[in-house]
């Protein structure tokens, strides 16, 4: 009797390996061969799980955006008032910008791909929609849209600046945008 190895986590390992490779080498550095080697799976597994590189990239970025959406939800979950939501948003901005280079690079690799490819644009739109939905539990749709853009911008500026701005500036910016809500 032949015993084939069952590896129920293989697909997830491949996606994780692809994200690690994107973070290190950019989208241009991703190939089935490199991802298979990094994931420790046979090359044939790649085409079994992902028909082509584009499908692998879409799945990897879908997984990544889900992680960031979950982070968004986690920060906002305990807020019961707009003031608590403002504090949660400030916490989120600082969490997103405090040293996680992998997330920063993955976010911008996805944005770059989305600027060129409509399928990835749809993925980023879904991500933004989820973020705004979370914010709309506390703020009107227009304010949620502005606040979502502020989160992206402040996170990027803090992450890339040699001397990131202090929490007080984040809180002030959030207060200004949400003043009418």
UniProtKB/TrEMBL annotation:
It comes from the Bacteria. Keywords: DNA-binding, Transcription, Transcription regulation. The keyword Transcription regulation applies. Coiled coil: none annotated. One of its GO terms (molecular function) is DNA binding. Residues 8-68 form the HTH tetR-type domain. The keyword Transferase does not apply. Residues 31-50 bind DNA. Signal peptide: none annotated. This is TetR family transcriptional regulator.
């Amino acid at each position: 009797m032949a015993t084939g190895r069952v590896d129920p986590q293989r697909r997830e390992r491949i996606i994780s390996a692809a994200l690690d490779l994107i973070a290190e080498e950019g989208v241009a550095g991703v190939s089935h061969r490199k991802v298979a080697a990094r994931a420790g799976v046979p090359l044939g597994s790649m085409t079994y799980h992902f028909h082509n590189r584009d499908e692998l990239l879409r799945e990897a970025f879908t997984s990544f955006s889900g992680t960031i959406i979950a982070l968004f939800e986690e920060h906002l979950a305990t807020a019961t008032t707009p003031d608590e939501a403002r504090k949660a948003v400030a916490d989120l901005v600082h969490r997103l910008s405090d040293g996680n280079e992998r997330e920063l690079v993955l976010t911008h690799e996805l944005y770059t791909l989305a600027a060129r490819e409509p399928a990835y644009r749809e993925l980023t739109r879904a991500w933004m929609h989820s973020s705004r939905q979370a914010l709309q539990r506390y703020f009107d749709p227009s304010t949620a849209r502005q606040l979502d853009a502020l989160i992206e911008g402040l996170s990027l500026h803090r992450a890339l600046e040699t001397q990131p701005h202090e929490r007080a500036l984040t809180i002030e910016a959030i207060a200004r945008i949400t003043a009418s809500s």
